[in-house]
Amino acid sequence: MHSTKIVTSFIRNNDKLLILKRSNKVKSMKELWAGISGIIENDEVPLKRAKIEIFEEAGIVEEKIKLIKAAEEMRVNSPQYKNHEWEIFPFLFEAINPTIKLNWENSDFRWIRVEELGNYETVPGLQKVLFNLL
């Protein structure tokens, strides 16, 4: 089975979490809600990639985020590709009232309570990833 290593990060602001809606311009999981995610390149350190993605996708600089928790690596089967799984490195960060500036990869964002995540059509395994961080 082929696998792709990715990071998925959640940003917490008070009692709410940031989720992003993937745009229709991305390669996979178009228009599904997700955390801030990105492919880990080569031998890159997952935490470093998470911080890069947070800046690229949400416009939040490293100085404005604080790592709260890094969960164990998880594997989630990809319904989009045959014989493929995502190897996910989950992170939870905190930021106080950040200004969100989306790039082309996402078309919308929401600040939600944990219990509201089930109201959104998300990428596979997002709830499982989040619950491993809480």
Main attributes of the structure:
single chain; 134 residues; mainly beta; Nucleoside Triphosphate Pyrophosphohydrolase; eight-stranded mixed β-sheet; 2 helices; 8 strands; globular
Poorly predicted regions: none
Helical fraction equals 10-25%
Shape: globular
- Could you give a short account of the major beta sheet? 8 strands, mixed
CATH topology: Nucleoside Triphosphate Pyrophosphohydrolase
In whole angstroms, the N-to-C terminal distance is 29 Å
Q: Can you walk through the features of this model?
A:
The protein is mostly beta strands. It has a single domain (2-131), classed as Nucleoside Triphosphate Pyrophosphohydrolase. 14% of the residues lie in helices and 39% in strands. It contains two helices and eight strands. Strands 1, 2, 3, 4, 5, 6, 7 and 8 form an eight-stranded mixed β-sheet that branches. Strand 6 and strand 7 form a beta hairpin. It is globular, with a radius of gyration of 14 Å. The model has no long low-confidence stretch (mean pLDDT 93).
